[in-house]
Amino acid sequence: MSVKFTEEQLNNLDKAMLIQLFLNQQEQLESIDNKMQLLLEQMADMNRQRFGRSSEKSDESNQLSFTIEDGEIIFNEAEAFVDDYFDDEDEETITVTRKKSKGKKEEDIKGLPVEEIPHEMTEEELKDFFGDEPWKRLPDEEYIRYKYTPASVSVEKHLVAVYSGSKSERMVKANHPKQLLRNSLASASTVAGVYNAKYVNAMPLYRIEAEYNRVGINISRQTMANWVIQCADRYLAVFYDYLHEHLYDYHVIQADETPCLVNKDGRNAGSKSYMWVYRTGKMYKDKPIVIYDYQRTRKSDHPREFLKDFKGICVTDGYQVYHSIEKEREDLTIAGCWAHARRRFDEALKA
Fold first, then answer.
1. If I label 337, which of 50, 99, 108, 185 is the partner at 20 to 30 A Cα–Cα?
2. Which stretches make up the Transposase TnpC homeodomain domain (predicted)?
């Protein structure tokens, strides 16, 4: 607690004491100013975290990207692209004549099936127009348009011939495709369509169910969920194990984990789980590998088991689990991520 002096006391102090009091006041003011500046920076950082963008995005166009593709998905995509070309605030009208590139339309439709639709006039129509004047046919005008046909579904009914010996009980069947799932209506094309809609186009199963209902197909989301799980276990698990083993052939990989909420895995609905992701480094562009490993916890046992046969450099964030595994092994090196190293400087700059 600071000492307060009266005017009379200050008048009775000598010069040395007054100088010392002044210096002490300077130190106190400097300390208060530093604390005030720190509080202002903390408030600015908290406001940015609460009201600012949650994703990090640099304005530098020449900065290396940390992902293969831009993962940002916006709802009003068309409006966003239009805003890049048109400025509402600029009232000046500028007319720009652009030279059309030859062959672009032909290049766009290259490889697509072409259906020719002739449009001709009858003899009566031509006589009504020309009368007694002779006429001749000129080269046709061509108009090219895209034609989109919504998805259509048909039923395949396989009739497998069965033969039996007249005198013996031996039987034989004609060669036929094996069933994807026994006693199920699922076919390879149908399941592939569900996989594409759910995991490529990010459509939930209830929307896929509604889409099928609109074209007259009754496939419940429970049935599709069963198809997805069983086919993944029977057919895709082989590719997963192969990619996991092939991942060890690369010298540099990346690893990260993110929380996710799971409704049903033997625990209460909404329990927090973790999706661990391992992928090849940015420099391997020809054949990149990305593998997801679902686990209930964030314990070190999961990356320790997944990376047990990997020898090389693993780029991660600052999670201590990876560094603990590095200390246990001599053939594994944990490298820091530039994006995470940049994050603290970016926060300090914005504050």
1. 50
2. 39-117
Q: Which residues pair with 164 in a beta bridge?
A: 171
Q: Identify the CA nearest to 74 among candidates 55, 48, 51, 47.
A: 55
Q: Please tell me what DSSP assigns to residue 177.
A: P
Per-residue pLDDT reduced to its tens digit, 199-228: 999 899 999 999 988 888 889 999 999 999
User: What is the average pLDDT across 80-85?
Assistant: 45
* pLDDT surpasses 70 at 67: no
Residue 156 phi, psi dihedral angles, 5° rounding: -95, 125
Residue 294 and residue 221 share a domain: no
CA-angle at 153, arms to 152 and 159, nearest 5°: 145
Structural domain count of the chain: 2
Whether the Cβ atoms of residue 322 and residue 298 lie closer than 8 Å to each other: no
Q: 280 has which bridge partners?
A: 253
Same domain, 211 and 267: no
